[in-house]
Write a structure and sequence with these properties.
This protein has ten helices and eleven strands. The protein has 300 residues and is an alpha+beta fold. It has two domains: 166 residues, Ribosomal Protein S5, domain 2; 110 residues, Alpha-Beta Plaits, CATH 3.30.70. Strands 1, 2, 3, 4, 5, 6, 7, 8, 9, 10 and 11 form an eleven-stranded mixed sheet that branches.
Length: 300
């Protein structure tokens, strides 16, 4: 792998970070190719995301444990390995943080930095691999092109699909906790009809008023339509409801959106019922521009 100026240096090698994504509502759009297949919907791009460290040797890990399946491993094996990729981050894979999308983007980006593929090819390869593995439909596009509140307006991978970034006010925080794990394939199969109906309605209603408040209201309704919110979750949220801008459940991730000044108090209250509580900020597009700048300014 070429050595490039501008990377954060450490003893293991070069490093960068890819945001995570919390979809609020969506509906699938299946087309004749992986590139055109995707989803329409909206979600929050969040940080800190997945930190990717590239080193010597071979192997793909998350939190020091080998990744044994998924789109990131598929990309790593297909493109010939050649170096190690170590991922870490403040999330639980399989819960709903779009780990598969972020990890596949991170691994594919490593090969772009190695000069094997372009960055745009890396993004599309990440999307194709995720669709093929049935781990997601629109998360790669949202992470690649989205900042803060990302609206997916045209389905497909990066370069085909379209994302519009909806401005949200400053000093917003996203407090989350995991309620378990739920495979995307299981969600798509079990709730297919509800997703299509509720997702289409939510998407059309959001286009009438593309705001954070409307997103949170529609996302909460979408969660309820899919049966992702039950009485036990309501009881956890009720004590802090007056402090929230809104909330919903993405797969098995409880998502609470608050003013930044309220985040600590909400996290402490939620932590009384849930063992792990995490706090995020809306993500920005600097990570992608950072990689693009490196590739534009450094020789192969």
């Amino acid at each position: 792998m070429r050595h490039t100026a501008g990377f954060t240096s450490n003893r293991d090698g070069v490093a960068f970070e890819v945001p995570l994504h919390l979809t609020g509502f969506f509906y699938p759009v299946y087309r004749e190719s992986w590139e055109l297949t995707g989803s329409l919907g909206a979600g929050l791009v969040i940080r800190p995301g997945l930190r990717c460290v590239v080193g010597r040797g071979e192997g793909l890990t998350f939190a020091a444990e080998p990744i044994s399946w998924g789109p990131a491993l598929e990309i790593y094996n297909e493109l010939g390995k050649g170096f190690s990729v170590h991922l870490s981050g403040n999330c639980l894979p399989g819960a709903g943080y779009a780990f598969s999308a972020a990890s596949s983007l991170a691994v594919a980006a490593c090969y772009a930095l190695a000069g094997k593929i372009s960055l745009s090819e890396a993004a599309m390869r990440a999307h194709i691999s995720e669709v093929r593995c049935r781990t997601g439909l629109g998360d790669v596009l949202a992470i690649w092109g989205g900042e803060g509140l990302a609206l997916r307006k045209r389905p497909g991978g990066p370069g085909v699909g379209e994302v519009e970034n909806i401005r949200i006010r400053d000093k917003i925080a996203i407090v989350t906790s995991e309620l378990g794990r739920l495979a995307t394939e299981s969600l798509l199969t079990t709730h297919h009809e509800k997703i299509m109906e509720a997702g289409d309605w939510s998407y059309r209603e959001f286009l009438k008023n593309p705001s954070l408040a409307n997103f949170l209201e529609l996302s909460n309704r979408f969660s309820r339509e899919l049966g992702l919110i039950d009485r036990s979750i309501e009881e956890i949220v009720r004590p802090v409801s007056s402090r929230l801008l809104g909330w919903y459940v993405k797969k098995r991730v409880l998502v609470l959106v608050v003013e930044e000044a309220e985040a600590r108090e909400v996290a402490v209250n939620i932590g009384a019922s849930l063992s792990i509580v995490r706090v995020f900020k809306p993500g920005e597009g600097e990570w992608r521009r950072y990689l693009e700048t490196i590739l534009d300014t450094c020789p192969s």
